[in-house]
Write a structure and sequence with these properties.
It is a single chain. By secondary structure, this protein is of the alpha/beta class. It contains eleven helices and twelve strands. It has helices spanning 9-12, 29-45, 58-70, 87-95, 123-137, 157-170, 188-201, 213-225, 243-250, 265-276, 294-300; strands spanning 18-23, 48-53, 75-78, 100-103, 117-120, 145-151, 176-183, 207-210, 235-240, 256-259, 284-286, 291-293. A six-stranded parallel beta sheet has the order 2-1-3-4-5-11, sandwiched between helices. Strands 7-6-8-9-10-12 form a six-stranded mixed beta sheet, sandwiched between helices. The longest helix has 17 residues, at 29-45. The radius of gyration is 21 Å and the shape is elongated. The protein binds beta-D-fucofuranose. Residues 27-28, 30-31, 104-105, 158, 186, 212, 214, 239-240, 260 line the site of beta-D-fucofuranose. It comes from Paenibacillus sambharensis. InterPro entries: Peripla_BP_I, SBP_2_dom.
């Protein structure tokens, strides 16, 4: 039987499900792995995928969603680049009877009926994991520990939450001080550029906390160019655990990585099918994740999928 929200008789009649998906962009290794996972699992599930790349711009995502509504797709899924400003377009999808699924990043809409479920990581917990490792490393510190932070895309859920979770934990030890914090937009190029500026402005950086591996990898280039040793002169923590990040950890250049799993495709396709069939889905589906020290990264690398 058709779900009452099925806008398209194709799926309602047991035919092929059409899903419009608006992706954030192609800003990082994480994102490439996420895109691949979604494309491959749509294919495996026999779901007709209309894929649109927003190049990190909310206006492009809003346009893509409106076009999916016009095309009367069965389901719209998207990874919102920023948290705010979605109510109007999500209301349009709701009025058109097209169910929406959030993947990877959250929206801050108060009206939870605007989407069926949110599949993705707990970014606050990721920030806490980074903070806990640091607190433990410096529990006997006699002097101030100067931390610089490379934030993800301004206004994005992972940037907001990874910052908040980290701050919450390091507040336990007043010696741990964030002396500079700026966005590097989740890219290598920006990570490098901002780290260069940090190194110029501050002679005494002890720790870098980067909200993703790509920014850490860019920053490593800047640190090496400044004649310093990443992982030794500056302790580095990052998030994601994509292959290049794990390699840098295995090489001792990144000291600690918090994993963020990009392989959300299979869970998304399951949720899409359930929603089209009119079944209830859990409003929040959280992905399981771990952390890696250099030693653990070395051991995990050979079998790493992304
Ligand atoms: O950590 C980063 C990417 O939203 C979890 O986006 C994702 C983040 C990921 O650009 O590398």
């Amino acid at each position: 039987p058709a779900g009452q929200d099925s806008a398209n008789t194709g799926a309602a009649g047991g035919g092929t499900i059409t899903m419009g998906f608006s992706q954030v962009g192609a800003e990082s290794g994480w994102r490439s792995a996420n895109t691949k996972s979604i494309q491959e699992s749509a294919k495996d599930a026999g779901i007709d995928l209309k894929f649109s790349d927003a190049q990190q711009k909310q206006e492009n995502q809003i346009k893509a969603i409106r076009s999916f509504i016009q095309q009367k797709v069965d389901v719209i899924a998207f990874s919102p680049v920023v948290e705010s400003g979605w109510d109007t377009v999500l209301k349009e999808a709701k009025d058109a009877g097209i169910p929406v699924i959030l993947t990877d990043r959250a929206v801050d809409s108060a009206d939870k009926s605007l989407y069926r479920t949110f599949i993705g990581s707990d970014f606050v917990e990721e920030g806490r994991k980074a903070g806990r490792w640091l607190v433990e490393q410096y529990k006997d510190a006699a002097e101030d520990i100067n931390i610089v932070e490379l934030q993800g895309t301004t206004g994005s859920a992972p940037a907001n939450d990874r910052k908040a979770g980290f701050e919450e934990i390091i507040a336990e030890n007043p010696k741990l001080k964030v002396i500079a914090s700026q966005t590097g937009d989740f890219t290598r190029a920006k990570g490098k550029e901002v780290m260069q500026a940090f190194l110029k402005a501050h002679k005494d950086i002890d720790v870098l906390y980067a909200h993703n591996d790509d920014m850490a990898l860019g920053a490593i280039q800047a640190i090496e160019a400044a004649g310093l040793k990443p992982g030794e002169d500056i302790v580095i923590i990052s998030v994601d655990a994509v292959k290049d990040g794990m390699q840098a950890a295995a090489d001792g250049k990144i000291n600690f990585i918090v994993e963020c799993n990009p392989l959300l495709g299979p869970q998304l396709m399951e949720a899409v099918k359930a929603v089209v069939e009119g079944k209830e889905v859990e409003p929040r589906i959280v992905t399981n994740e771990t952390t890696f020290t250099s030693e653990e990264a070395k051991a995990a690398l050979p079998t790493r999928e992304y």
